[in-house]
């Protein structure tokens, strides 16, 4: 029994390591081909080497994303480069605010000082 479990674990590990990962562009291409209907979904999936259940889950995700987009729900997670850019922009804006605040204080002090010397 222990040997059986060990071999099952090895097979599972091999399947995980050799599993094909599809990019978003590949998934979209496959779903669009299926929607065109030029060949059956079964034939498309066989040619692409994916399970039909995987095709249908991609198709569902694709159509739901399109529905949300058309409904105006465009909220999404920011990518790492976007986060980095936003942090950089926030830091630059904080510097500008600090400089303007300092200039404002200096101007106020100079106005107060000029008013006192005129009296």
TrEMBL record:
Keyword Iron-sulfur carried by entry: no
GO MF assignments: sequence-specific DNA binding; transposase activity
GO biological process: DNA transposition
Pfam families attached to this UniProt entry: HTH_Tnp_1
Alphabetically ordered keywords of this record: Coiled coil
Coiled-coil spans in chain: 83-110
The protein, known as: Transposase
Organism of provenance: Ruegeria marina
């Amino acid at each position: 029994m222990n040997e059986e479990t060990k071999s099952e674990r090895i097979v599972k590990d091999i399947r995980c390591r050799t599993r094909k990962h599809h990019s978003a562009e590949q998934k979209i291409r496959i779903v669009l081909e299926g929607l065109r209907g030029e060949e059956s979904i079964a034939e498309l999936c066989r040619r692409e080497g994916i399970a039909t259940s995987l095709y249908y889950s991609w198709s569902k995700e694709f159509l739901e994303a399109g529905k949300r987009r058309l409904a105006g729900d465009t909220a999404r997670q920011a990518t790492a480069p976007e986060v980095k850019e936003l942090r950089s922009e926030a830091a630059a804006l904080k510097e500008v605010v600090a400089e303007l605040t300092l200039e404002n204080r200096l101007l106020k002090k100079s106005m107060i000082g000029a008013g006192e010397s005129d009296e």
